[in-house]
Automatic annotation (TrEMBL):
Annotated signal sequence range: none
Family listed: Belongs to the methyltransferase superfamily. NTM1 family.
The protein, known as: Alpha N-terminal protein methyltransferase 1
Reaction(s) this enzyme catalyzes, per UniProt: N-terminal L-seryl-L-prolyl-L-lysyl-[protein] + 3 S-adenosyl-L-methionine = N-terminal N,N,N-trimethyl-L-seryl-L-prolyl-L-lysyl-[protein] + 3 S-adenosyl-L-homocysteine + 3 H(+); N-terminal L-prolyl-L-prolyl-L-lysyl-[protein] + 2 S-adenosyl-L-methionine = N-terminal N,N-dimethyl-L-prolyl-L-prolyl-L-lysyl-[protein] + 2 S-adenosyl-L-homocysteine + 2 H(+); N-terminal L-alanyl-L-prolyl-L-lysyl-[protein] + 3 S-adenosyl-L-methionine = N-terminal N,N,N-trimethyl-L-alanyl-L-prolyl-L-lysyl-[protein] + 3 S-adenosyl-L-homocysteine + 3 H(+)
EC code: 2.1.1.244
TM ranges: none
Species of provenance: Phyllosticta citribraziliensis
CDD domains: AdoMet_MTases
Enzyme class: transferase
Amino acid sequence: MSEVEEDAPDASINHAVAIDYWNTVQPNVNGMLGGFPQVSRIDLQGSSNFYAKVRRLTGRQTGELVSHAVDCGAGIGRITAGFLAKVAQVIDIVEPVKKFTDELQADTCKDLVEKGRIDAIYNAGLESWTSTALYKYDLIWNQWCLGHLTDAQLVEYFSRCSQYLAEGGLIVVKENLSSDPNGRDLFDEEDSSVTRTEIKFRKLFEESGLDLVWSEVQRGLPKGLYAVKMFALRPKHL
Ligand code: SAH
């Protein structure tokens, strides 16, 4: 192995450490957002504006709900309840920590579950998740969870996502960006994740055969947090 690879921050990722960490976190919006619950409203509004714009740019009708979305690394379903339910009829959930999906079913997304608008709930990490659904997804939403996958796992995961995407569907990545002055990804020991640079994300999208349709910075976040960027992607072959 080359020196560069040995040094790679993602080599330190340990899934068991990450799951242990998340099991200590309260199943509420404050826990999901690392002590910045006030960010949620701005975040959800930004996502809604971004998705509406991308739908317009790609020539899709914006008024209608799409058929199926999946909330990946969903936590307690903050995004499903606050945004995805407004754009998709049925939503699947992927989240490895059971106490979060228990909360989702008991509280955050209770109404949606009762109305049959949440279909499958997968308790799995994205590195091992496989969809058993007969339908494909119009929208695969990945937010604040992809740092738990290594670079190699992420490329493999994106390739899997491409197979699960309906015609005209989109993969959205909304993640923090590394602010490292030397342009390196940053490893966080506490939750065993990496924060990637934008350059790294673009490289991994390319390696995964994804085209970048549109990207935007999330505006209005408190100073002192990482920059957050949204990327809308679709497979080159679709
Ligand atoms: N996306 C949600 C939750 C963010 S918190 C939101 O924005 O509100 C990060 C989530 O990633 C936690 O729920 C954590 O359990 C989950 N997670 C940890 N490891 C993961 C993995 N390997 N694959 C998918 N999700 C993971």
